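Task 17 of the worksheet. Students: predict the tertiary structure of the chain below and write it out as structure tokens. Keep your answer in the requested format; marks are given for formatting as well as content.
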Amino acid sequence: MKKTTEAYLIELLDRYPALKTIEDDIYAAAESLIHLYQHKGKILICGNGGSAADSLHIVGELMKSFKQYRSIPIELRNKLEKYEDGYELGNHLQMPLRAIALVCESGLNTAFANDVNPNYVFAQQVLGYGDKGDILMGISTSGNSHNVVYAAEVAKAMGLTVMALTGQGGGKLKKLADICIAVPETETFKVQELHLPVYHALCLAVENEIFKVGDISWKQ
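Model answer:
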């Protein structure tokens, strides 16, 4: 990990001293995400309520530039310029870090909930989208959300890495997760208040590691 990457994690722990008790888990999550994107994998993210919103938020930070400019590769830019709108596309598109929020497939989720079982909607999407070596991030303040736990079980069976973002104790997800960031709070809103700076720091760290500052080419 580059020193500039680690700086984001150090800053996180300085700003939120309560997280120092789970420093090793935060670093492990950062390393796992960096490895994922160095090997061109993707992350699947799920949660309920506020955690569903967090899932969407994380995807928004990963799939476009967060802090650094992420120009598309010159080879792709050149190919796009053969088309009428290619020059504008080449100047405005940004390189993504592949991420899918399992919470926004309303057609699939409502159909599966109606026809089969609402608790299995995330598990079904893991089955459809997941590949060995990908990461499933399950967000649950209690660590016991049934649909997130079931998704984690399918992910483990398929060879995905399971990363959990929970409250203190970690619940059932901690037992399933390869990496569990169990922030030291128990009340839902207080857990969520710590989840946001954690995933912001992780997104900043992985972006900094994968993309070269000031370089128009993509590192991968």
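Marker's comment: The two ends are 15 Å apart (CA to CA). The chain has one domain: 3-68+95-210.
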